[in-house]
Amino acid sequence: MTTQATAQRRLTFLQTAIALQTLTIFLQAVSAGLLLSSSYGETLHSVGARVMYGASMLYLLAAVLAWKPGGGSPRPILHATGFLVLASVQVVLGIAHVPSVHLPLGVLMFGLSVLALARRREAR
Question: What is the C-alpha to C-alpha distance for residues 52 and 46, in angstroms, rounded to an integer?
């Protein structure tokens, strides 16, 4: 397999990781609505938080794998690290029940994740 094909697969993995992160953040918004209106919403939101956090870690791993062999820009690693920090803050705020910051931060994370996904699609 050529070096270019390997690099393309790693970039595809990065794009997939960002898309998964974006989807899990969106599903967190849906489960937050269920949290307010149903008995199973709290469980769903709690499980979703773990999945979203895992998706943020996967995004960081994909960014490192896409950068390391090709020697490209480390900027995606900085973005992924930022998302992991935001996800960590989000988890802490959720556990502490601080919705006045937790909710707007979730909206910000979703917007930034959509932006990261759009930029990655552009770069392809």
Answer: 10
